[in-house]
Give the backbone structure.
Amino acid sequence: MNGRMAFPPWATALMLLALAAFVVLVVLSIRRNRGFRRTLFSFPYSLWIVVFTIIPLLLIGYYAFTDRMGQFTLDNFKTFWDSNFEMNKQLTQLGFDPAALGSARGTVNVDTLVYSLWMALACTLICLLIGYPAALFMADRNFRLGSTLVILFIIPMWMNFLLRTIAWMSLLEDNGLINTLLKALGLPKAQLMYNSQAVLLGMVYNYLPFMVFPIYNSLSKQDRRLTEASMDLGANPALTFLKVTMPLSLPGVVSGITMVFMPSVTTFFIPRVLGGGNTEMFGDLIERTFLSADNWNVGSALSLIMMVLILLSLSLLRKVDPEGEGGSMI
């Protein structure tokens, strides 16, 4: 650990430069707010951002573009594209020809990313198909049970994320509740655990509220007079929904898609519990690279690639919903 934290001079200079930039921003903030007292209220938040956001990002960037000796390299990103890159590099250093030994390009990392994107896309689509009608009913002022549904969606979120996921094991495992009912009905047991379907079910269950509440927030803020005007002009309920309600709710939809897609791509606990090691997503790959392989450099490169995907998702949200109108959870 001590060897890892021994930064080269250029990395130390870069971090000092970032710290100096932060000090400059603080001074500019004091001047803008015309005094130190008003700026003082932002110090806890600023300190939190520096310690838990800026410094970790700098460390990830440092490790992603350096090797174990602290020298600048792009080999960590080559390892993402070719999971056999390190092994082929060592074979070359020993005087062997990797091609002659039949060592082709490894696609484990890229395949894991593609699989994670596919699972996240499927989870987002299912959450949208389930969440939009639910949010529509909850936001309907004539639907008396709307507030009750809101509470029913909120209550499970009071429970710890890990406990909610582990609770599904008692339902899906071989001797779980579902298979016990199937056995009582004289039906054969079903393999409900340790597959992609179980992982997808756990993802949808945990991330569905993050789709419902932004859409509900967007729908509940719509002016009812717009719907009434559409009906007065001769539009039927279906046409009113397509031309008025749905376009006005797009900021909430895009916000929900972003809030579900991003954690779905990076999730790692759900595949481990419900997938049983038979499925690996990109979050599992990053964790295994850091902890099991003890390769902080490649793990940081993988994390940086994931952050780029997240930033692309956020840029999409900013274009469709520049004022963050649909970004609120409730």
The longest helix spans residues 108-139. The CA atoms of residues 59 and 300 lie 8 Å apart. Residues 74-106 form one domain. The mean pLDDT is 82.
